[in-house]
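Async update (no meeting this week)

Hi team, since we skipped the sync, here's where things stand on the single-chain job. The sequence we agreed to prioritize is pasted below, unchanged from the tracker. I ran it this morning and attached the output directly underneath so nobody has to dig for it. Comments welcome in thread, and please keep replies under the output.
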Amino acid sequence: MSMDIILITGMSGSGKSVALHALEDAGYYCVDNLPPELLIPFVKLEEQHQERRLAIAIDVRSANSLHLLPEQMGLLSNMGMTVKSVFLDANSDTLQRRYSESRRKHPLSGGDKPQSDKALIETIGLERELLADLRDRAHIIDTSLLRSAQLQTYIKTLVSAPSAQLTLVFESFGFKRGIPTDADYVFDVRMLPNPHYESALRPLTGRDEPVQAYLRQSEAFLQMQMQIEGFLMHWIPAIERDHRSYVTVAIGCTGGQHRSVFMVEQLAQSFGARWLTLKRHRELDAI
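Output:
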């Protein structure tokens, strides 16, 4: 019997509990902090219990056995299981702030005394090193600027998508709030005509027809779209042959409201006929 398995890994404080709650709401049987060496036995046990959808969180608390995960995931695939790996990340400043606000201790910190800011940053850096291989093998979601509701929506959209050899994620963002760390490719469209300077278009977004009509009239916009499509069309087949499951393409403008949003809409439409595509609008989704 084939099972749908979501493996949640990532940095401590990046939102794994929120992700598990979203998956539980979506009908998954969820388990937190499962040691990697128990992954195969646990799946076999749940297979006997007729569970069809599992969500399993594994993190740095199992540091001594994390190296087993790639092999375990391969075994699950050979058993006919559908396995999706999601890595939740956030920048170090955000993680440090979250720990300071919650007054929780990092799982890698030793002793009972509160951790200094310097020691916490060093611990976060160590955790990144320990999880680097898992991050490279997973679909990454940067939660630095996401509210809990946004992360829940992203997780539910991701897991509801049908299984495919390669999934393309197109994400718009505003440079004034930083570049998403989950992006495989980043394209800057700030040099294109800006609808923000048109009073009638300023309150609208790249999803609205007046903004889209304005940008379609721009030769520069059409040329940029053609060049991005040409680059991706050339290289994505090679990425697919390398057995990658996800590629995230981030498009940024100043505020993440007009130009990048419409570019994402156009790219998702262009590539949707050949690959499974998902859309995210970081700044608009936060409203």
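Quick observations from my side:
The beta strands are 4-10, 29-32, 53-57, 82-89, 139-142, 167-174, 185-188, 246-253, 276-281.
The longest helix spans residues 219-241.
Reply here if anything looks off.
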